[in-house]
Records
---
Amino acid sequence: MAKLNITDVELSNKKVLMRVDFNVPLDKQQNITDDTRIKETLSSIKYLLDKKCSLVLCAHLGRPKGKPVPEMSLKPCAAHLAKLTGVKVQMAPDCIGAETKKMADALNPGEILLLENLRFHPEEEKNDPNFAKELSSMAEVFVQDAFGTVHRAHASTEGVTKYLPAYAGFLLKKEIDYLGKAVENPDKPFVAILGGAKISGKIDVISNLLNKVDTLIVGGAMTYTFLKAQGLSIGNSLVEDDRLDMAKEVLAKAKEKKITFLLPIDHLIADKVEAGAKSEIVMENIPAGMIGVDIGPKTIALFTEAIKRAKTIVWNGPMGVFEINDFAKGTIAIANALAEATATGATTIIGGGDSVAAVAKAGVTSKISHISTGGGASLEFLEGKVLPGIAALKDK
């Protein structure tokens, strides 16, 4: 998995096409409500500017489905990046075309041009060679620093690498280092914690991790499919009845491989999934009409104990309906347990999506070793899949 990064090659005074992840949330007034993704790319941008490179940045925002959608313009990102870097950021009218090419050609060392939303063109997601070639014509080198997009073979992630030498930026390097080590050579004991709604979305991750982990912890709504598969009653909890056999197979495989497979032993249950709902703690069986919404205190203690012993911990998916404060205790307890494990020398990795929000809610974001910036990409990495946007970069 070792790929050349921007410190491995001489890039001084080069014109660089750089893929960044500026897919940020905007409010109705087109204000950026969370700039994490932009901030994550700053170290690569500043490094290249210090090297007197001229930067052509390309990104997507939202799902415009191959046509221009004014609300999904990257203009707010250009203004925000200028504020963060103190460097003027020119905004291109499009991501390809004569006018954009002219602006790219006119760039001086230390200047930045942001191309308009790549997905305003259907050719981006189709990985169209001519579109990729046109993007590539604006630079001498390609730098990939958008980890959230590398699981897709698009023109700006895979296509351009056929026309330009391609290297990893610092953010991508960090993701490869942390996730790669966890998947290929983790410090043991290795504990994986999986939560969220459905087994079907995580089955490939579970299957791959069963070959790597010492302990697999499962929480969240997918718990109830496993518990039902073991013959326990789960009331009105979310369940995938068509995945019961799959759950049984996973449990049998874990047993065969002598992996500790931890499921909740008590539950916070409620009569409905909303704030202020009537709730109580029950042991194994959930009564009819009630819904499992979080792990209980005995489960928190059981899971925390396993986390304490671990040297590598990967977490993807909440333990309950953590968006509602009444049902967030289990998820926040796990976030705090990971923060404590980090403090005592364990490597802790949060794999994208809701877990990132959960760690933020617990106020321990800065106390985790690595928080992945890509939900789908980090999941596919943990599944052991080859990610096309990484595979296309030059090997060390």
Note: The first strand starts at residue 15 and ends at 19.
---
Amino acid sequence: MDEDAPRALPAVSRLEPRDELPDPLEPLDGDRVRTAEDWRERRRELRRLLRHYVYGYAPEAPDIETETERTAGVLDGAATLVETEIGFPDLPADAPSITLALYLPTEVADADESAPVLLGLNWGGNHAAVADEAVTITDRAREYGADERGVASDYWCVDRVLSRGYGFATYHLADVDPDNPDRADGIRPYFDDELPGPPGTEWGSLAAWAWGLQRCVDALRERDGVRSDEIAVTGHSRCGKAALLAGATDERIGLVAPHQSGTGGTALSRDNGQESVGDITGTFPHWFADTFSAFHGQVDRLPVDAHCLAALVAPRPLIDTEGARDYWANPGRALDALRAAEPVWELLGEDGAADDLPLHEGDEMSEETVGAVCQFRRETEHTLDAGYVDAILDFADVHFDRA
């Protein structure tokens, strides 16, 4: 049985309003969580609540089949490119597939060694992340992606990731769902008969993109050159929301790094004066389960919030990267979410957030200055660049024992 399957969860109108944040260690019914064993059951409950009321129920992991092409000497000799098409043999032949691009540092690939990998969800096509002719421009990328190769190279900074001894992997969100209210043009309709929830709780685009990241993890864990327990997942803005959801609901992912993910991501929905539930579900209704929009004007009935999603990452490391001038993403409410989730890491025997969070550019990241939970800010608006990539890798260096 799917552990996320609903168990007589009440309609939104029957949920009790509450003035305070839901306690991640306080089940709906039952005694307070006091042990790691207790947490496993509460974790299952939180997953169900988040699926049911916010993101929608995703299908269980399907069988996959992969076809791989390897090209050495890409990026001026810095990397070996491994392109993997991830297909779903139990679906009809016309179902979408995922094209995963993996770049391994040349010295790692040539020596038959392995490296940690940063897996990022991209919005423009794999060809947009680097300006190299070897990267395949897929049919989906031609239809929904960027016009030029390498247009997002200063955004993803793949050369910088490789120089730090990490591999970089990415897939184009349109492979799974093209971010279009018309849900017919994506993977979701192929699983309509397999979803466990009642009408209105079907998976939205965020859950579909997160599911796609998890299928990439399936493929990466089988790939030579990848340290299967050192896969970090990231994404920016809407992709950051999906990255957090993927990492929170898949314990194989070793580190989670949502970037400027805002409402529906790391920022709390309660007392959010920047982007309310009504704002985000009114503009992007297809990102969520239909049930989420019912909390517009009554968010105090929501039995979970962003801190509950963050808590599902525990005891694994989580870094929330933010722009101090990115007011719409609301880094202050994101920090509040991390603080509210911190007791779960402490229950599981991990140091939580450092007392002086958030960290800023120039602050040292080491075992003495960061715990398992971190918020890092730079004086930027809504963007991803080398300064943020370095911060994510600095945090990963600490937790992957590379510092």
Note: The domain at 65-399 is CATH 3.40.50.1820 (Rossmann fold).
